[in-house]
Amino acid sequence: LLMDLKNKYDVEAGWKATKKALANPANRRMGLEARQLNPTLAKYSLAWGAVVLKDPLARGAMKACGLTEASLNDEKADTHKVVKYLEVFYEDDVSIYRDNSEELPKWVPAEIELTLTCWAAFRRGADGVKLAIGEATLVEGLLGEFDGVQEAAEATSAELEAQQQALTEAGKALRKAAGTGGDAVLPDTTALETAIGAHEESLRVRSETAQRLHHALLASKAAAVDPSQKGKEEALKGAAGALAGFQAKAKRVQKAAAQDADGLKAARLELGTTMAALKQQVGKARVEQQPPTTRPRSNAGAPKPEKVGG
User: Fold this and answer.
1) Is the Cβ–Cβ distance between 93 and 110 less than 8 Å?
2) Three-state DSSP class for 183?
């Protein structure tokens, strides 16, 4: 159905953009890319990830949007739900990213990222107006740790995607072989199970690290080194806004990573059901390909029944 309705290349490209956004809620640029997809393509991209690739992120999003077979039959149906879902997923954009119309110091980051680079730029600006940031050293250490955690999660995500694609292709080949009478052996899911477990663990670590970072940021307060310095109020307002942005980012990442890890745990449990369904499909295809083992019986030579009575 998906292949009939939308171009495969467009849908796959749309899903890649959407998946990156869902998997990296701390990256606003990826969120903007996902929301710039036209609503119809966004809808089919989610369906592609959920139905074809069995991705837990897509399945959760598709369920939240209420997308059904009827929705997919009608290109315009429920597209607004997908748009709303992506908007809600990044609902704290307004609080994280300052409005360009606000008169805040230039050193306040226009886009908050949970990176040492973004934090260092903020600190350099804050030092320029003589601001002291409490817990700054702890935050810097956790951001350095978070960078490594992010890289690990991206690596396990890439491996999981590769294994999911491999299983999808193996399933297609298996159905084809069974339908033509060829050898059909169920694929080994060990590598996929390992990939799911590894990515689930990396997401748990990302969630825990983001939580510790969030607590450290909550304890970070800005104060003027010199109470009489010029522009003190403006500087304190800018610092408070930036700290709130970092806090909101960390909280969102912590929550999203925990939810995604739970989704992967459920996906691993459902893998057995998926393979059982595939085995059933293959068995049915084999039966349909088998010729009749015996010729139809005929009653031409059977004795005729005797008449009873006159």
Assistant:
1) no
2) coil
Detail the DSSP E strand segments found in 130-174.
131-133
225-236 burial: b if 16+ Cβ within 10 Å, else e? eeeeeeebeebb
- What is d(CA 261, CA 150) in angstroms, rounded to the nearest whole number? 14
Three-state SS string over 62-116 comes to HHHHCCCHHHHHCCCCCHHHHHHHHHHHCCCHHHHCCCCCCCCCCCCCCCCCCCH
**Residue among 79, 119, 60 nearest 239 (CA):** 119
Q: Which two tokens stand for residue 58?
A: 């897509």
Angle value at C-alpha 286, between 284 and 289, nearest 5 degrees: 110
pTM, 2 dp: 0.63
For 32, 147, 216, 239, the CA distances from 108, given in Å and listed in that order, are: 21, 21, 19, 7
Distances (CA, A) of 185 to 164, 178, 270, 274, 286: 18, 9, 20, 15, 12
d(CA 147, CA 227): 35
Residue at 230: amino acid letter: K
Q: Are 44 and 2 in contact (CB under 8 A)?
A: yes
The tens digit of pLDDT for each residue in 33-91 reads 666 677 777 777 777 777 777 776 777 777 777 777 777 777 777 777 777 777 666 55
- The tens digit of pLDDT for each residue in 89-130 reads 655 444 444 444 455 667 777 778 888 888 988 887 766 667
DSSP tag of 226: S
Nearest to residue 40, comparing CAs of 1, 10, 9, 60? 10
Spatial distance between the Cα atoms of 240 and 215, rounded to a whole number of angstroms = 15
Task: Classify residue 255 by its DSSP letter.
Answer: H
Please, are residues 283 and 184 in contact by the beta-carbon 8 Å criterion? no
